[in-house]
Design a protein that fits this description.
single chain, 368 residues, alpha/beta, Rossmann fold, six-stranded parallel beta sheet, five-stranded parallel beta sheet, 15 helices, 42% helix
């Protein structure tokens, strides 16, 4: 595996790749994962629950930094490829190291396109031919949503891209004892587990809070950090809702089930999204979800587990949230949500499908 981020980094990609690796190890496979040395004080090599993790240099969290990491990770990745049966690129920056490693060992490449970064760059006349080459170089292409798969297939006609929704470890993400004390009587708690960057649209959730508070007693807990935090804190003060909005900052991955289980409703005001692992994690913890009608979110949020609203529209957002909070039997939404994830988006299902893909590409490469 090659993935730019892995735990203890917190995020959808990180969670997806790590739990997939762990599930493959549990099935008897050997997994080496090359990732970035993105946080200080982390070892260059360690074994986490059977997954061998190797960290290489990355100078910055931007396009140039990701590209530098991809290039500098090639020696390590190529050395590991000498005994690999499959090379799996987890998103854009991972594909070049896989292509380089094929010179060491002619192993098949599986590539997964996860994020909105792909959708943004897919509009670029510079990036489209690069993506076309990447798509053509892989033995099997996966995408985290139908939207990403459709865009990828439009870039490389004749290349099939399989939409495969990211999975959740439903043994880890489940309803547990809340980590946050219950709110005051009659108050509903909203939670937004989001990195505070523009594409995640948290600004519009803050702007919707005055309208929400006119209709229901509620409070909002924002879990995550990012460059927009100070501006969002100022916005909540300007709108007079700062006493009802708490910014927790980044929290350890191990805390997430307890934090999510502290909420009545999760809100995802994204302006752009693949299939949100964080939204699936909320559903697995029996927390209904209100989300923007963008990307892969409509694929996982149906009317019996939550509601959709228009992106960038505080009024649409507030109506969806208030409508859910005023429903009787909201707990049933949570129960249904949990079962939906277990049935369709569990990590076990994801690992089974990946094992099938790996076996198929190995056999096809051997037969060629």
């Amino acid at each position: 595996m090659h993935s730019v981020y892995l735990p203890p980094e917190v995020g959808g990609l990180e969670s997806h790749v790590y739990f997939l690796c762990r599930a493959l190890v549990a099935r008897g496979h050997e997994v080496d994962a090359v990732t970035s040395h993105s946080l200080p004080d982390l070892p260059e090599h360690e074994v986490m629950e059977g997954v061998r993790i190797w960290r290489t240099w990355m100078p910055a969290r931007n396009t140039a930094g990701w590209a530098s990491h991809a290039l500098c990770s090639m020696p390590r990745f190529s050395s590991l490829a000498e005994r690999a049966d499959v090379l799996h690129a987890q998103d854009i920056a991972a594909i070049l190291p896989c292509m380089a490693a094929q010179r060491v060992r002619d192993a098949p490449i599986v590539a997964t396109y996860h994020t909105s970064h792909f959708l943004k760059r897919a509009k670029s006349l510079i990036w489209r031919p690069i993506f076309k080459q990447f798509l053509q170089s892989a033995d099997h292409n996966l995408a985290a949503s139908r939207e990403i798969a459709s865009v990828a297939e439009s870039i490389a006609p004749g290349i099939a891209v399989e939409p495969l929704t990211n999975g959740v470890d439903t043994n880890f993400f489940r309803k547990v004892k809340p980590l946050i004390a219950n709110p005051s009587r009659g108050t509903k708690r909203l939670v937004a587990p989001r990195r505070l960057v523009e594409k995640n649209g948290v600004e519009y959730l803050i702007r919707a809070m005055p309208e929400i508070l006119e209709e229901v007693k509620a409070e909002l807990v924002v879990i995550g950090d990012g460059p927009q935090r100070s501006s969002l804190e100022r916005l909540s003060e300007e709108l007079g809702v700062n006493k009802k909005v708490t910014f927790l900052g980044s929290r350890p991955h191990a805390d997430m089930p307890g934090l999510l289980s502290s909420a009545d409703l999760a809100v995802f005001p994204s302006l752009m999204e693949a299939t949100s692992v964080a939204a699936l994690e909320c559903l697995a913890c029996e927390v209904p979800v209100a989300a923007s009608r963008v990307g892969g979110l409509p694929e996982i949020i149906q009317s019996d587990v939550g509601a959709l609203f228009e992106p960038g529209d505080p009024t649409s957002l507030s109506r969806a949230v208030v409508g859910l909070l005023q429903k009787s039997g909201l707990e049933k939404f949570g129960t249904t949500a949990r079962q939906r994830v277990v049935d369709f988006w569990s990590n076990d299902r994801l690992a089974d499908r990946h094992a099938e893909v790996y076996e198929a590409v190995i056999q096809n490469r051997q037969a060629a």
